[in-house]
Amino acid sequence: MAKSTKSAQQLSWQQWSAANETKYLNAEKQKFQAEMLKLEMHRLCEETEEFSHQSQKDVNKKLGHRLDDIEFWKMELEVQLDKTKTEIDNLLAYKIRVEKSVSSCEEPLEIALSCLQFRAFRTDEDQVYDGVQAELEKEVRGIQGVKELLQKTLEQTTEQIRLCRSAKYYMEKDLAGKHSAMDIDAQCATMTVPSTKVILDSTFQLQASNPDSWRSFTSSNIKKAEQECINGLNLRLLIDSMLAQTVSDMQNQCESVYAAFSQRIMETKDAKSKLEEHLSKISEQIRDTEFTIGRLKLAIEQKELPLNLAVTRMAARAERPNIELCHDPVSSGLEQEIAEVETAAKKLFDKLAEAEATQKVLQKTSLSLDNDITVKTKSLYIDEVQCLGMRAKLSIHKY
Questions:
Q1: pLDDT for 161-189, tens place per residue?
Q2: pTM score, two decimals?
Q3: Which of 24, 80, 286, 309 sees the fewest Cβ atoms within 10 Å?
Q4: If we measure between CA atoms, which residue out of 188, 198, 215, 207 comes closest to residue 61?
Q5: What is the largest CA-CA distance in the chain?
Q6: How far is residue 386 from each of residues 111, 125, 270, 381, measured CA to CA in Å?
Q7: Which segments of the chain does DSSP mark as H helices, in order?
Q8: In 3-state terms, what secondary structure has residue 381?
Q9: What is d(CA 294, CA 286) in angstroms, rounded to the nearest whole number?
């Protein structure tokens, strides 16, 4: 039994040699595989290093291009931002001009309305709708229209300033982003492998844009600002034209009002002069009529004595007795004398009544003429002293 066990544990020489050969072959194989692995690792390391170097080179190149793009658009933003700031300053200056123009309408409007109020106190037939009245009302309507137009323009200017400031805000915000991106990419461009602190966190912010949308965003901001600047320029050109036109219109109307006043004052002075001339003639006629009335009264008084004498004689001769009461030539003469005196007296009384009636008419005419002169004097004071005196300080400014 023991002999059988020993035989089972022992190998033959051939088996031993074969086992050793197998081990030699396995060792050679493992050695070959290790050599091949070493060569593969060496090649892979070289390839990886070359790939990494090339990738870094490509990334650095792309970073350079990206920095160039950012710099280009940053400069475009800065140029347009300066233009927009200038346009805002210009619009603010124009806004002040329009505000001053609106304020400058107050004095001419107040003076025109005051002139209308003064002229409302004209009396009698001088309360006429004349050329001055028409021109003053036209002036009031014109100034009110100018004020409304300027007020609307002021609102448009304020809105355009707001739009320009909005465009400026978005460009400044975009420009701040460009500066931040440039700083970050410039820092990335200077990074090297030995100087870089390894960040193991691989969680990054999701991309907010792509190159096309990035360029489109900035281009849109610039174009919007350009358009607002163009709109601002057009508005300023409109304001220049409008202010020049409104000032010209107001000055022309002011001259028209002055011409109407001058014409009306000349007409009133002429009418007043003619009235005074007629009043002088009437006054002289009244004096003549008074003199005539005095002469008629004196003539009437002078007729009373002969008439009394003739009547007294007639009465005395009527006392003759009986047959002596004869209608003789004396009686006929006395009767004729009395009739002639009474006829002459009646004529004198008729003329006196006519003269007194004429005197009353002349006096009434004189009072009417005097009242008309007073009316004309008041109208001249209103037009020449009050209205023109007030309008003398009127000045229309171009802002």
A1: 999 999 999 999 999 888 888 887 777 77
A2: 0.71
A3: 24
A4: 188
A5: 246
A6: 11, 20, 20, 6
A7: 2-9, 13-104, 106-119, 131-190, 211-317, 329-380, 388-391
A8: helix
A9: 12
